[in-house]
C-alpha cells in the first residue's frame, strides 16, 4: 500500500466542538421558552418536551464524542500532526492510509467502516490500543476520565433503550451523581431529570458553585477532553 501524506486532524476536534456548541445552543433555546403543564391558549411548551430535547441533545454529544475519538485515533496512526505540531510518538511505522489504520486498530485486514465499528465507547479499550501503537500519546488523558465517560454512556443508553440493564445502569449513575437519601431515586426518575439537575459532585467545585446542570457540565468536560486529545 503506497505511503501518502498524513491526514489532518485539527478539523476533527473543531467539528466536535461545533457539535457541542450546537447542542448547548439548542438546549438553551428550549429552556428559555415559556412552559406550561396544562393545555391553554397561552404560548408555552410542556416541560416533558423540553426534557426530551435535552436527552436527544445529550445523545448527539456522546455520539459525536465517540466519532471524535475514532477519527482522531485513526488519523494519529497515519502520522497526522496538529497545526501546532503535536502528534503521538509511534512505536513502529505509521499506517499508510486511514483505511490501513482501521485495519490495524481492529486487527481485521478486511475491516469495513460502514459495516464494523471500533470500541471507542470504552475508554479502557482506547487507552490499550493507543498504548500498543504509541509510546507516548494524548489519549492517556482518558485515564482519569473513564468514570465520567462510562456514566455518560449509561445516560445515553437509558435515553436510547428501555431494557432492564439500561435502567439499572442509569439508576447506578444517577445515584453516583446525586447520592440521594437511602440510595433511592424518585419513581420514574429519568435521564432528562438528571441532565437538568444541578451538579453536586464529580465535576469540580467550579461547576458546583456556578450551579451548572449535568448537561452543561458534561459538555464542558467533553470540550476539555477534546482539547487535551487533539491540542489546539
TrEMBL record:
This is RiboL-PSP-HEPN domain-containing protein. It comes from Amaricoccus macauensis.
Amino acid at each position: 500500500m503506497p505511503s501518502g501524506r498524513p491526514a489532518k486532524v485539527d478539523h476533527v476536534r473543531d467539528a466536535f466542538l461545533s457539535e457541542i456548541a450546537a447542542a448547548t445552543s439548542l438546549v438553551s433555546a428550549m429552556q428559555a421558552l415559556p412552559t406550561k403543564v396544562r393545555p391553554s391558549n397561552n404560548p408555552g411548551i410542556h416541560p416533558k418536551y423540553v426534557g426530551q430535547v435535552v436527552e436527544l441533545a445529550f445523545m448527539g454529544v456522546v455520539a459525536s464524542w465517540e466519532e471524535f475519538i475514532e477519527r482522531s485515533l485513526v488519523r494519529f496512526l497515519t502520522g497526522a500532526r496538529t497545526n501546532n505540531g503535536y502528534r503521538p510518538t509511534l512505536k513502529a511505522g505509521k499506517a499508510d492510509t486511514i483505511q490501513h489504520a482501521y485495519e490495524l486498530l481492529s486487527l481485521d485486514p478486511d475491516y469495513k467502516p460502514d459495516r464494523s465499528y471500533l470500541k471507542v465507547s470504552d475508554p479502557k479499550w482506547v487507552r490499550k490500543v493507543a498504548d500498543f501503537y504509541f509510546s507516548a500519546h494524548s489519549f492517556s488523558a482518558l485515564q482519569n476520565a473513564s468514570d465520567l465517560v462510562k456514566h455518560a454512556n449509561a445516560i445515553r443508553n437509558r435515553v436510547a433503550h428501555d431494557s432492564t440493564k439500561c435502567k439499572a445502569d442509569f439508576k447506578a449513575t444517577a445515584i453516583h451523581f446525586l447520592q440521594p437519601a437511602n440510595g433511592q431515586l424518585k419513581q420514574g426518575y429519568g435521564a432528562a431529570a438528571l441532565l437538568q439537575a444541578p451538579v453536586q459532585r464529580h465535576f469540580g467545585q467550579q461547576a458546583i458553585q456556578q450551579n451548572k446542570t449535568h448537561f452543561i457540565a458534561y459538555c464542558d468536560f467533553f470540550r476539555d477532553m477534546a482539547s487535551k486529545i487533539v491540542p489546539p
